[in-house]
Amino acid sequence: MIAVRGLLALPEWSDVVVPAGADGLDRRVTAVRAVFDLRPEVAAGELVVPVHPPPAADWRVDALLRRVADAGGAGVLLPGGLPPATRLLGDRLAVPVLVTAAEPLDLVVAARLALAAPDLDRARLVLAAQAALGERLRPPEEVVAVLRDLLDAPVALLDDRGALLAGDPVRGAVRVDEPVPQRIDVPGGVVLAHPVVLPRARPSAWLAVELSGPAAARAEVAPPALALTGGAVQRWLLANRLELERDARSRTALLGDLLRLDGEPTADLRRRATDAGWQLGGWHVGIRVGVPASVDVVARGPDVVAALRAAGVAAVVVEHGDGWTAWTSFDQEPTAARVRALGTRLRAAQRDLRRTVRAHMGVGRPHARFEGLAKTVAEATDAARLAATRVESGNFLHVDQLGMAQLLLEWTRTDTFEPAARALLAPLRGLPGDLVRTLSAYLDAESSIAETAATLGVHRNTVAARIARVERELGVDLAHRDERLALHLACRTVLPTG
Amino acid sequence: MGDTVHMRIDRDDVAALELGVTLLGSGGGGDTAWAGAVLRGRIDAGRRPTAIPPGDLPPDALVVPVGLVGATAVLAEKPMGGHEFRTAVDAIARWTGDRPDAVMSIEVGGLNGLLPVVAADDLDLPYVDADLAGRGLPRLDQLSTAAAGRGVAPAALAAPGGQVLVLATGTPADVERAVRGFLTVVGGWAVLALSPVRVADLPGCAVVGSTSGALELGRRAVTGVPGDVLATGRVVDVSRRRGTGFGRGSVAVLDHATGAVLRLEMENEYLLALRDGAPVAATPDVLVVLERRTRAPISCYHVRPGIELVVARLPAPAFWADPAHLPVVAPRAFGIDCDPVPA
Question: How far is CA A247 from CA A242, A316, B327, in A?
Answer without folding.
Answer: 9, 13, 91
